[in-house]
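Progress report, Aim 2. The chain analyzed during this reporting quarter is listed below.
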Amino acid sequence: MESENHLARVMAVANQKGGVGKTTTTINLGAALAEQGNRVLLIDLDPQSNATTGLGVSSRDVETSIYDVLLHQMPVAEVIRELDVPGLSLVSSSLALAGAEIELVAAFSRENRLQRALEPVLSDYDWILVDCPPALGLLTVNALVAADEVLVPIQCEYFALEGLGQLVGNVDLVRANLNPDLKVSTIVLVMFDARTNLSQQVAAEVRAYFGDRVCRQVIPRSVRLSEAPSFGQPITVFDPTSRGALAYRQLALEVDA
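Predicted structure tokens for the chain:
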């Protein structure tokens, strides 16, 4: 980790289905990795800015954001914010990002804007986590081109695997055309309720399909996890002894192994 040639692992957190705990996982995995001594940069690539507000940054207070990096080619180092969580930094989203999909269509080298922007800071971090929007547009393509690997959170509910084949197909397309090293490395089962047969069935189905890419650690359904973002804190700070905090710490150990 301390070698001069060390470069960050870049992981896109993606699922085109909304409400599957994608941002919750990005924030809390990032905070847990930082707590364990990693230097972590979190990039909020979602126009909804949930990762930004979930880490205590009001989107109204954002003057420069990932939008300026992608559209105006501002150096990413100029928009990085240090947070109250030691080791965790943020490149925030902003409302302007909502129009970025359309603006990028006519832009030169539109698919690898993020990849090029991150190159100067790769040696400054151990992990770069990119919270993708719940759609497979140009913002998500930028994340997939910049990333080494993809983490997919899967909700333990009835339609969990719906659309997942399409996501994997799009990762395959990006790998074939733009990023030959990209892989879906990590599947995380979230909103897991051990009391229900459905959660157990979905977990078994996902494990049968994806094998050892599915993390052993599951993330429980938890009120405290849902409450933490409204206080602008990751669960490891908001309620460090809660089930959710313990689960994300274990997940971080597993992902960083």
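Strands lie at 9-13, 40-44, 80-82, 88-91, 127-131, 149-155, 183-190. The radius of gyration is 17 Å. These observations will guide the mutagenesis work planned for the next reporting period.
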